[in-house]
Design a protein that fits this description.
Layout (H helix, E strand, L loop, with lengths): L33 H16 L2 H12 L4 H12 L3
Helix pairs in contact: 1-2, 1-3
């Protein structure tokens, strides 16, 4: 695979070139419950939107299914470059 100028490292022709942190992560780490991954993406969006009420509700939802891997994934997504 040949890198395309101004694309993420390893992106080849025809692959997405959006900067990291924009939009949902591709798949996340293996082993994370899909519902937890979806909730994490919703939390990330709510944080970026400044929606405190949604953040509280989503964190409550996440608490029911969270494990260490999901918490680390949430941290990674929150600190991703926009």
């Amino acid at each position: 695979m040949t890198a395309v100028p101004s694309s993420p490292v390893g992106a080849g022709p025809g692959e997405a070139t959006a900067p990291a942190g924009l939009g949902p992560a591709p798949a996340g780490p293996a082993g994370i419950d899909p519902s937890a991954r979806e909730t994490i993406e919703e939390i990330v969006q709510a944080v970026r939107d400044g929606n405190d009420a949604a953040i509280r509700t989503l964190l409550t939802d996440l608490a029911a299914v969270v494990d260490t891997a999901a918490l680390l994934y949430l941290r990674e997504r929150l600190y991703a470059t926009q």
